[in-house]
Design a protein that fits this description.
This protein is α+β, with helices and mostly antiparallel strands. It has helices at 5-36, 39-46, 61-71, 100-104, 131-140, 149-174, 178-181, 191-205, 207-221, 223-234, 255-265, 326-339, 345-379, 387-417, 423-471, 479-508, and strands at residues 78-82, 93-97, 109-115, 121-124, 270-278, 284-291, 303-307, 314-316. It is built from 16 helices and 8 strands.
Length: 526
C-alpha cells in the first residue's frame, strides 16, 4: 500500500514519541496484568494454610451464622457465605468491619469464622495473602500503586489514550512495507533490524488484543466521568422507591435451599459466594457470585445474580452469565474481553502470553527509539549520546527489570512470611527492589546495568520456587500451584539468556551507542 512519504514520516515521529512517553508504564501494566490472569491460583499459592477448623456443612451453616451475628453485631451490615473453600476463601463465613472512612477506601478488618468440633464459634482475622491484589493494583494503576486510586486512574486513562494513538500510528507506519516485512525476522549483525522485525511481528499480530486493551482501559479509567456526562445529556434513570415492608421481614432461606433454588432456575450457573447485605429497614439483600463456563463474566472471575433471600427467586440477572439481555450482554463482552474471563484455562494462558508479548513490544519500542536517536544525533555531528538519551536507556533497563524483580521478591515474601506479609509490607518490598534497580541502572549506565541487572532479576525470579521449598510440603498439592514455580523458572532462564545477549552487545555495539561500554569498546566505524 502506497502512502505519501511525509505522512509516514509524521506518523513515525508520533509513534516514537507516544511510545517513549507511555512505554515504560505500559510495560508494568502488561507484565502485572499477565500475572493477574492467574490471580486465584496465585493467591492459593501465596496463602498459608488456614488455622480454622474445617468448615461446617451447608446444613449447619445457619447455626454458624446465628452465632456470628450474636457475637459480632457488626456482621449484620454484611457477610459472605463461601460455598467453595480454599486458601483464598478459608472459612464458610466471612465479613468486614470498617469505619466509614475505611469503608470508603476499601479498608477494614476481615473476619473468618468456623465451628469447632464441640460447636463453639471460632473466629480469626488472618486470611488469604494480599499479594495477588497488590499485583492487580500495579496493573490497574500502571505501576503507580503508591497513589490513591482516584489520582492514579486518570493518569492510567491518559496513558491508555497515548497507547491507542501508538497503535494507530504504528499501523500507518507499517502499511507501506506490510507485504514484504510481514513475516520477516532477520537475525544477524544488524541488531536494530532484528528488534524492529520482532517489534513489528508481535505488534501486528496482536493488534486486536491491543485495541481491546486500550479502549476498555480508557473506559475503566474514565468510567465515572462517562456516566456523569451521560447523566447531564440524558438525565439519570429514575429508580422506583422501595416501599418499607408492612410487617417484619420474612424468614430467610438457608444457604443450602438458596443453592438448590438456583440450580433449578439456572442449571449451568455454579454459585461460589452468597453475599448478604443488611438494609436500614431490617431486610436483607442477597447477591450471588458464580460462574458459568459457557459464558463470559462481568468481573475478572465471577458473574453476579441478585436473589430474593426469602424465596430464592432470581430478581435481577443484569450481571449473570447466560441470563442477560442484549444490552447487558454486550457491555459484559467488553469486560470479558479485557479480563479474559471466558473460554476457561486456554484463553487465560493465551492472555498471559499476549500480556508478556505486549510488555516485550513496549520494551523493544524503547530500544528502537534510542537507536534511531543515535543515528539522528550522529548525522548532526554528535560523537556520543546526549544525557537525556543515556538516562532513557538506563530507565529502559531499570524499570522493566525492576518491575519483574520487585514482583518476584514480594511474591516470595508472601510465601515465607505468611500472615505477617501485610499489604503495606508488600508495597514496601516491591518499591524498594524496583527503586534499587532503577537507581543501579542510572548509576551504572545502560551498557553495564543490562547484563548485571538481568542476572539480578533472574535470581529474584528464582526466589519464588526457593520460597516454595522453604515453606515446606504443605504449600504443594495441585498443578496450578506447581505451575507458578515452573513459570518463574522459565522466566529466570529467559532473563539469564538476555544477560548473555546484553553482555555481548556491551562489547560489540558502536562506541556512540548507549549499549556500548566506552571503557571496553574501541571506536567503531558504523
Amino acid at each position: 500500500m502506497k502512502l505519501p512519504t511525509d505522512l509516514v514520516r509524521m506518523y513515525k515521529e508520533i509513534h516514537g514519541w507516544v511510545g517513549i512517553i507511555s512505554g515504560l508504564a505500559l510495560f508494568i501494566a502488561f507484565y502485572a496484568g499477565a500475572i493477574t490472569m492467574f490471580e486465584e491460583p496465585l493467591q492459593r499459592w501465596a496463602s498459608p494454610p488456614s488455622r480454622l477448623a474445617p468448615p461446617p456443612s451447608l446444613e449447619r451453616t445457619p447455626e454458624l451464622i446465628e452465632k456470628v451475628l450474636a457475637a459480632h453485631p457488626g456482621a449484620k451490615k454484611g457477610y459472605d457465605v463461601n460455598l467453595a473453600i480454599d486458601s483464598a476463601r478459608p472459612a464458610r463465613v466471612s465479613w468486614v468491619e470498617a469505619t466509614p472512612e475505611e469503608a470508603e477506601h476499601g479498608g477494614g478488618v476481615t473476619y473468618y469464622a468456623s465451628l469447632r468440633p464441640d460447636g463453639a464459634l471460632q473466629v480469626e482475622t488472618r486470611g488469604p495473602s494480599p499479594v495477588a491484589q497488590f499485583i492487580d493494583v500495579l496493573h490497574q494503576q500502571v505501576g503507580l500503586a503508591f497513589l490513591d486510586h482516584e489520582v492514579a486512574m486518570p493518569i492510567m486513562g491518559a496513558v491508555s489514550l497515548l497507547y491507542m494513538i501508538a497503535i494507530v500510528s504504528g499501523l500507518v507506519v507499517l502499511l507501506p512495507s506490510l507485504v514484504s516485512d510481514l513475516f520477516a525476522l532477520r537475525i544477524g549483525r544488524n541488531v536494530k533490524r532484528m528488534w524492529l522485525d520482532v517489534h513489528n511481528l508481535l505488534g501486528l499480530f496482536s493488534v486486536p488484543f491491543h485495541v481491546i486493551m486500550a479502549l476498555t482501559a480508557v473506559v475503566f479509567a474514565f468510567h465515572d466521568q462517562f456516566y456523569d456526562a451521560q447523566a447531564v445529556a440524558f438525565g439519570r434513570p429514575e429508580r422506583p422507591e422501595r416501599s418499607a415492608p408492612a410487617g417484619p421481614p420474612p424468614p430467610l432461606l438457608t444457604p443450602a435451599a438458596i443453592v438448590a433454588k438456583l440450580q433449578d432456575q439456572a442449571p449451568g450457573f455454579t454459585p461460589i459466594v452468597l453475599d448478604y447485605s443488611g438494609r436500614p429497614d431490617g431486610s436483607v439483600f442477597l447477591r450471588v457470585a458464580g460462574t458459568d463456563p459457557r459464558f463470559g463474566t462481568r468481573g475478572p472471575t465471577y458473574g453476579f445474580a441478585s436473589v430474593d433471600p426469602a424465596s430464592g427467586e432470581i430478581v435481577s440477572s443484569d450481571y449473570m452469565p447466560g441470563r442477560q439481555d442484549g444490552w447487558s450482554a454486550t457491555i459484559t463482552s467488553f469486560f470479558a474481553l479485557h479480563f479474559g474471563s471466558f473460554g476457561g484455562a486456554p484463553i487465560r494462558w493465551a492472555y498471559f502470553l499476549l500480556g508478556l508479548a505486549g510488555a516485550f513490544v513496549f520494551y523493544t519500542g524503547n530500544l528502537l527509539w534510542i537507536e534511531s536517536r543515535r543515528k539522528r544525533e550522529r548525522k548532526a555531528g554528535a560523537v556520543e549520546q546526549t544525557r537525556s538519551t543515556r538516562v532513557l536507556g538506563a530507565l529502559t533497563v531499570g524499570v522493566p527489570l525492576g518491575c519483574m524483580a520487585g514482583i518476584s521478591v514480594t511474591l516470595a515474601a508472601a510465601k515465607i512470611l505468611g500472615f505477617a506479609a501485610t499489604p503495606g509490607l508488600h508495597s514496601v518490598i516491591y518499591h524498594a527492589v524496583f527503586l534499587a534497580f532503577v537507581v543501579a541502572a542510572l548509576v551504572r549506565g545502560a551498557a553495564r546495568a543490562g547484563p548485571e541487572l538481568s542476572i539480578a532479576a533472574a535470581v529474584a525470579m528464582l526466589t519464588i520456587p526457593a520460597a516454595s521449598l522453604v515453606a515446606g510440603p504443605d504449600w504443594f498439592g495441585s498443578p496450578a500451584l506447581i505451575a507458578v514455580d515452573a513459570v518463574a523458572v522459565g522466566l529466570a532462564l529467559t532473563l539469564a539468556a538476555s544477560a548473555r545477549s546484553a553482555r555481548r552487545r556491551r562489547f560489540a555495539a558502536p562506541r556512540d551507542s548507549v549499549w556500548a561500554d566506552p571503557g571496553l569498546n574501541a571506536p567503531h566505524p558504523g
